[in-house]
Design brief:
The complex is a heterodimer. By secondary structure, chain A is of the alpha/beta class. Chain A has helices at about 45-50, 80-85, 100-110, 115-130, 135, 150-160, 180-195, 205-210, 235-240, 245-250, and strands at about 5-15, 20-30, 35-40, 60-70, 75, 85-90, 170, 200, 215-220, 225-235. Chain B has 7 helices and no strands. The chains are: A alpha/beta, B mainly alpha. The interface of A and B includes residues 210 and 252 of A.
Amino acid sequence: MTEQTVMKTRDFTLYYGAFKALNSITMDIPVNCITAIIGPSGCGKSSLLRSFNRMNDLIVDMSVEGRILVDDEEIYSQDVVELRKKVGMVFQRPNPFPKSIFDNVAYGPRIHGTRDRSKLAAIVESSIRDAALWDEVKDDLDKSALSLSGGQQQRLCIARALAVEPEVILMDEPASALDPVATLKIEELMEKLKRKYTIVVVTHNMQQAARVSDYTAFLLTDSERAGNLIEFGGTSDIFTKPVDKRTEDYISGRFG
Amino acid sequence: MARETYEAEMNALREEMLKLSNMTNRALERSIVILRDRSFDEGEKLIEDDEEINLACHHIEESCLNIIATQQPVAGDLRFIFATMQIAMELERIADYAKGIAVINRKIPPGSHIKPLIDIPRMQQKAREMLEMSMDSFLKCDLDSARRIPSMDVEINLLYEQVYRELVTRVMESPERIADAMLLTFAAHNLERVGDRVINICERVVYLCTGDVVDMG
C-alpha cells in the first residue's frame, strides 16, 4: 500500500468472555480514503469497527490481545475521550439527541471545553455545511433535531461527529435505514468528506462498498466462529479479481 | 444462499455461446466446401444464414446487459460476462469472414480454380481446430490451453504465405487469370484473419481466468 496509514491493527484479537469474536486481525487504514469492511452477519465487522474507538469497552467480559494504533499511538493506553475525539462514529440508525439542531452539533465541542457562543456558532455552521445539510436547516437551527427526516437526521449525526474535528470517522451501516435518495446523499457526502477525513464504513450492501470505497476488507468467520480478515485490497481489485475463493463466493452472492 | 435465477441465466449464456461457436465453426467449414466445389446456390444460402449468426450475437449481448443490469455480477462472473461480450463479437466477425469467402466465390467465374485448392482447405482446417480449442478453453476456463493455442497460428500464417507465393507463380504462367488469383488470395487472407481473431479469443480467456489483459498476437 502506497498511501500513508492513519490507523493500524496488529494481531488484534477480541474476546467476549471466552468467545473469540475477532482473530488476529492485521490491517492498515489508509489516510483520506474510504475503507469498507464487508462480510456476512456475525463475521465481526461491527466488533472490529467499534474497537477502533473502543466502543466495546462497555461490554462486560470484553478483552483484547494485540494492538490498535491511531497515529502510531496505542489506543488502549490513551484517554478514551481523547480517542473518540480523534475517531468519531456514525451509527446505523440516526440517533440525534432530543435537543435542537444547534445543540446536537455543539454538544461535542462543549464537552471538550468550547463555551464561546460565536465560536460554537462557527463550528456548528461549518460542521453542518460539511455534512451537506446547511441549506436545508440554516433557518431552523433551534428546531428539534427529531423534526428532521431520517436522511437529514443521519447527516446531522455526521455533522455532530465532524464538530470535534476527528481524523477518522467510523460509519456502521450509515445508509441501511435510509431510502435510495437519502442513501445517495450520504454516499456523495462520504466522497466529499474523505478529502479531509479518513472513513471506515461497515456495510452489508456490497454495491455500496463497491461504489464508495477505495479499499475493501473482507471478514469471515472460521470454524470456531471467530472473525478473520480474509482479504484486504483496493476495491476495484476485490470486485474484479479477488485473490481468495471465499471472497469471490461472498461478493458474487454465493453464500452469506 | 443459492442465486438460482442468476445461475440459470449464466448457464443459459454459456449454452448460447456454445451454440454461436458451433454455428460459426460450421459456417467456416461450409465456406471452403462452397469455394472448392464452386457451389453458388450453397454460397447464397451461407450468405443468407449469416444473419442468424448476427442475431445470435446480438441476443448474447442483450443477455449480458440484462444480467449486468439485474444481477450486478462481480469478480469472476463479471469477467465472464465481459469476456462473453467480446468473444461473441469475435465469433460474429469470424462468421463474416466465412460469408466473405462465399462472396468471393460468387465473383470468380464458374469453372475450375487457377490452382487446385490444397493449402486453403488446410488453413481452414487449422483455423477451425484453433477456434474449437479456444472456445473449449473459454467454456472450461482453461488457462493453460488458452496460452498454448496462439502458437498454432504460425502454421496458418506459413500456409498463407505459401498460397500467396504459389498464386504469384500461377499468375506469371497465366496472366489473364490475375483477378481469380487475387480473389483466392483474399479468401486465404480471410482465413489468416480467423487465426488472429482466435488469438483475441484466447486473450479474453486469459482475462477471464486471471483478470489480466494480455497481448498474445
